[in-house]
Design brief:
The protein has about 425 residues and is α+β, with helices and mostly antiparallel strands. The protein has 2 domains: about 10-35 and about 215-420, Serine Threonine Protein Phosphatase 5, Tetratricopeptide repeat, CATH 1.25.40.10; about 75-200, Carboxypeptidase-like, regulatory domain (Immunoglobulin-like). It has 12 helices and 10 strands.
Length: about 425
């Protein structure tokens, strides 16, 4: 039995890790061809009983619903430092985690300081290559903006109450590092907003980072040009930002983050050759800086260059095998299209394992198809059901449900055969 996968995905191009600015909308990439033919994808409340009756006295619960808790702004401030006591060389994302779900709240400044109002994050974007939970290549069909919205749940762009902070924590999010945790449960509006220092500690055995320490050695004039570029990107003045970045890298050729941002601009402007050159310069300046590898992988995927995608994501996985489930997912996509089934399955399993927030449910679908094609129907049903569960509104959901029904039928036939053979 052979099932076609028909991978559909968008490739995110720009990351605002350095720019701290919303990235332009990602350009959709072509569907990944599969080694077997791919099927075409089909692409007022009522009145309550007794509402007209004369109402008696309200009970306390009704009064509580009529007069909910006042939602006042909750401000937090603090500082993020590396374990040696120095501020991070680049802005670091501050996240609020509520019941296991991360929500971006803001970024640190050049001195590691941050000041945020909880819940006011609608202007923020999901980073393309910052953390393990970020969708590096965009949303692999039913990703992070699934049911709860991009930053859904309590406080997603609205004021929040003290009650909303139950089960919540604050942390700094930076790939390659573990953050101290600040408990927000029980915090009151009038409490001191200063949460103190959050320390980032490097993860043992992980070489790849989402920041480049070459930034620390940047001359004053180069850093000034880079910071101007960041400001211009915030204002969506892309040509002006490009000019400042070109000045920064001419003054300091090892300015990896400047090369990376310059590559992003070229990539978004449909200049892939210039983008590749800039990313290569970033890697030459700092070969443990993960972000440019991820953008090169996005270019390879957009061109259906599966061997390059496999090679590039292999390098990301070697640099940081614990915080980039998206790298494993796209490594699996590449090997699937190269018909390297065992390698594809291995990476798909790792992607599913690391994707604890279910931000890449397409990895479940991919693994399910790989298992079905090796006649592991029970495993295939489990993972295809996972995709249906975590991506209920995906564009290909009808096609996937048909695949699920087909696999379940095969599983039933296999079970009957086994029972007949071994009564």
């Amino acid at each position: 039995m052979k099932l076609a996968l028909g991978l559909i995905f968008g490739l995110g191009i720009l990351s605002a890790q350095e720019a701290q600015a919303p990235a332009p909308s990602p350009s959709p990439a072509p569907s990944a061809p599969s080694p077997t033919p791919t099927p075409t994808t089909p692409t007022s409340p009522g009145r309550f009983p007794g509402q007209d009756r004369q109402q008696g006295p309200l009970d306390p619960r009704q009064q509580q619903q009529q007069f909910p808790d006042m939602q006042r702004p909750i401000f937090l401030s603090g500082k993020v430092l590396m374990e040696d006591g120095t501020p991070p060389p680049e802005p670091v994302k501050i996240e609020r985690i509520c019941n296991g779900q991360p929500r971006p709240e803001g970024y640190t400044d050049s001195k590691g300081r941050f000041s945020i109002q909880l819940g006011q994050n609608t202007a923020m974007m999901a980073d393309a290559s910052v953390s393990s939970t970020a969708d590096t290549f965009g949303d692999p069909l039913g990703g992070s903006n699934r049911q709860s919205g991009g930053f859904g749940g309590p406080g997603g762009g609205r004021g929040i109450s003290e009650r909303d902070l139950m089960g919540c924590e604050l942390r700094a999010d930076l790939a390659g590092y573990r953050s101290d945790i600040v408990n927000l449960s029980g915090r009151r509006i009038l409490d001191n907003p200063d949460v103190g220092v959050i320390v980032l500690r490097s993860i043992a055995g992980v070489e790849g980072r989402a920041i480049s320490f070459t930034t620390l050695a940047a001359p004053k004039d180069a850093r000034k040009a880079y910071e101007k570029a960041v400001d211009q990107m915030k204002k969506k003045k892309v040509p002006e930002a490009q000019k400042e970045l070109e000045k920064a890298v001419s003054l300091y050729p090892k300015y990896a983050v400047a090369w990376h941002m310059l590559g992003q601009i070229h990539q978004q402007s449909n200049r892939p050759a210039d983008a590749r050159k800039a990313y290569s310069e970033a890697i030459a300046a700092d070969n443990k800086y993960v972000n440019p590898y991820l953008q090169l992988a996005a270019l390879a995927a957009g061109e259906n260059n599966w061997q390059e995608l496999a090679d590039t994501t292999d390098r990301v996985i070697r640099l940081n095998p614990v915080q980039y489930p998206q790298a494993f997912f796209y490594n699996s996509v590449a090997n699937y299209n190269l018909q390297k089934w065992d390698a594809a399955e291995k990476s798909a399993r790792e992607a599913v394992k690391l994707d604890t927030q279910h931000r890449m449910p397409k990895a479940q679908h991919l693994l399910g198809i790989l298992l079905a094609n090796k006649n592991d129907y029970a495993g295939a049903v489990e993972h295809i059901k996972g995709y249906v569960q975590f991506a209920p509104t995906a564009p290909d959901i009808d096609q996937v449900k048909k695949q699920l029904a087909e696999v379940e039928q095969r599983l039933g036939q296999t079970t009957v055969t086994q029972q007949t053979t071994n009564p």
